Fold:
Amino acid sequence: MTLRPILIHPDPRLKKVAEAVPDLSDELRALADDMLETMYDAPGIGLAAPQIGVSQRLIVMDCIKEEGAEPRPTVMFNPRILASSDEMNVYEEGCLSIPEQYADIERPAEVTVEWLDRDGNLKEETFDGLWATCVQHEIDHLDGRLFIDYLKPLKRQLITRKMQKLKKERARA
Structure:
């Protein structure tokens, strides 16, 4: 397994709509493993393939954060939201592509998602709480959308400027 570099906003690759995964290959399963390792190392609870520069509809997530709890690494190829609740939830979201920036984002409290697992089986599950927020956040990445796109323009511009500065500092290091 390989740790992959995570793209930092602003990067045009983060704004592109990702391609559907045509069929599962060992290469794609290895990519999913790399993404899980990268996500855990970051550390984060979700990662979308576009965040590592791969324009494919693939996300990984694991929202188990309790100490000593069994991890639940989840790999989703071609995930899509089938249904969303009318009830809304607000979570403070962050993003591995927008380090150390957080904002309260309102999203549906529950979503039903369909996807292919790493063995090509069609899965469907209803997520709530942090899992619902995370899966919506990651699917947004596949559609070229970032959590800051939900913010007012001034706040979004402020965060974007901070990220540009961070990228310059990292380039010099």
Residues 153-172 form the longest helix (20 residues).
